[in-house]
Structure to design on (293 residues):
């Protein structure tokens, strides 16, 4: 392997430590404790793992964690009523509705019912619009974490060719907006892109967010490029066991790239750290206090 490993686990620990310091100061100086409410509907095993991890790290940072677990059959109206209750609760500064929601619930309606000031996932249409127009927004946690890793490793991103593979509302599109905001020349590739390999090979920065295990191999990567692997895919490892892999074939990409994030231990830990940072930011904005740097 020739590429530098971008250690998201260590970087995220640093963010969490800074958040904890800020939270302690908010409590000591102002008597305020940031609070994050997480709403989980149903029994999806991956969602349960994420929610447990979010709750644990929220408490470890000194914040209040409010968990609301609802049955899969909960009605859309009951879910909207809970969101309205959390919007009105001054102890709650951030609200996260864990996706996916059951099919009978309109996820867009529920997300857009969240007070945009408490929308720490940054999925509300107001925050999407603010980000798209370069205004102060709540920025989605996963792309924000990717941007932090890129800035830390590369310094200025200005003028670099960036390719984002994937165009979802939660990763691909906001990632592209953030890279554009940092003056990259941005291309978004997706399932209808003609010759995605050729497109990716132009990239100084390649962000893979497709949900296809190890789809991107070394011959998709420009020599020296910085590769950010957002994918989290569980695959069969034989003997009845499974293992996590990204959207990039790590060994093959690491032979060509200048730097690369591992899976696990790359983007994943950054997502929760950014969620805690967003919640602290939301709390500071709610109380007209200086935001964390
Ligand atoms: P989605 O399924 O919502 O979007 C996948 C995107 O990839 C779509 O835009 C799709 O194109 C595109 N795509 C699919 N197949 C191909 C292909 N063969 N060639 C080119 N493009 C393709 O996924 P998400 O954005 O939600 O997640 C992507 C990955 O990131 C997943 O592995 C997910 O688990 C992971 N993830 C990780 C997080 C973390 O914290 N690290 C957080 C969120 C997600 P089209 O639009 O044309 O269908």
């Amino acid at each position: 392997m020739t590429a530098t490993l971008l250690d998201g686990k260590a970087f995220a620990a640093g963010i969490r430590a800074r958040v904890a310091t800020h939270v302690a100061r908010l409590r000591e100086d102002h008597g305020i404790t940031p609070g994050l409410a997480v709403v989980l509907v149903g029994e999806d095993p991956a969602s349960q793992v994420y929610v447990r991890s979010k709750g644990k790290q929220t408490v470890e940072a000194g914040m209040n964690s409010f968990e609301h677990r609802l049955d899969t059959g909960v009605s859309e109206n009951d879910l909207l009523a809970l969101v309205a209750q959390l919007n009105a609760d001054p102890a709650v500064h951030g609200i996260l509705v864990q996706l996916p929601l059951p099919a009978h619930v309109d996820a867009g309606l529920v997300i857009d019912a969240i007070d945009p000031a408490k929308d720490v996932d940054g999925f509300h249409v107001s925050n999407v619009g603010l980000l798209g127009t370069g205004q102060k927004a709540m920025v989605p946690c996963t792309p924000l974490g990717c941007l932090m890793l890129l800035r830390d490793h590369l310094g200025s991103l200005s003028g670099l060719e960036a390719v984002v593979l994937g165009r979802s509302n939660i990763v691909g599109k906001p990632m592209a907006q953030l890279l554009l905001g940092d003056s990259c020349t941005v291309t978004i590739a997706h399932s209808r892109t003609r010759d995605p390999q050729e497109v990716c090979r132009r990239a100084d920065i390649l962000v893979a967010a497709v949900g296809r295990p190890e789809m991107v191999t070394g011959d998709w990567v420009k020599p020296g490029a910085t590769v950010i692997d957002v994918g989290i895919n569980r695959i069969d490892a034989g003997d009845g066991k499974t293992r996590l892999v990204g959207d990039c074939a790590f060994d093959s990409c690491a032979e060509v790239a200048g730097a690369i994030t591992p899976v696990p231990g790359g983007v994943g830990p950054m997502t929760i750290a950014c969620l805690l940072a967003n919640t602290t930011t939301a709390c500071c904005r709610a109380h007209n206090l200086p935001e964390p740097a």
Q: What stands out?
A: Residues 142, 165-168, 170-172, 189-193, 196, 209-212, 230-233, 267-268, 271 surround NDP (CB under 6 Å). The chain has two domains: 29-116, 141-268.
